[in-house]
Amino acid sequence: MHACALRRALVRALLVCAALAATPLVAGAEPPAALAASAAPAAGSNPFLAAAIATGLAAIGAGIAVGIAGAAAIGAISEKPELLGRSLIFVGLAEGIVIYGLIVSFIILGAG
């Protein structure tokens, strides 16, 4: 299987898992009395799973971006060594995607 097709299949599988996790397991199920009395999230929602999906997808995206940017950076540095500083900036920007996913997961956990 080609690497691009494998990535697409992985992303589709993760989206299906996220959609299934967002739906309640039993249609019309009543939440427990303790949850109904408090200001808890809607029945069937799981903030831990949502935070894990946010961080996981951000890490996968950052891995793909660092792989592409890193390969291009190595190619550029091998031809012109003075491009080391500039190429490290682009690789660092790609790594920052994980930080954004982590921040979103903290926001999700803080809101729940």
Key terms:
single chain, 4 helices, mainly alpha, F1FO ATP Synthase, 112 residues, 77% helix, flat
What layout of secondary structure does this protein have?
Blueprint: H1 3-22, H2 33-37, H3 47-79, H4 84-111
Helix pairs in contact: 1-3, 3-4
What does this structure look like?
With 112 residues, this protein is mainly α. It has a domain at 50-112: F1FO ATP Synthase. It has helices at residues 3-22, 33-37, 47-79, 84-111. Helix 1 (3-22) runs antiparallel to helix 3 and helix 3 (47-79) runs antiparallel to helix 4. The longest helix has 33 residues, at 47-79.
Q: Give the N-to-C terminal Cα separation.
A: 40 Å
Stretches where pLDDT is under 50 for at least 5 consecutive residues are none
Measured on Cα atoms, how large is the radius of gyration?
Answer: 20 Å
CATH superfamily of the domain at 50-112: F1F0 ATP synthase subunit C
The CATH topology of the domain at 50-112 is: F1FO ATP Synthase
Structural class: mainly alpha
Beta-strand percentage range: under 5%
General shape: flat
Number of strands: 0
Helix-residue proportion: over 70%
Text of the CATH class of the domain at 50-112: Mainly Alpha
Sheet with most strands? none
- The average pLDDT score comes to 78
Listing every helix as H and every strand as E from the N terminus to the C terminus, the arrangement reads: HHHH
How many helices does DSSP assign?
Answer: 4
CATH architecture grouping of the domain at 50-112: Up-down Bundle
Summarize the structure.
This protein is mostly helical and 112 residues long.
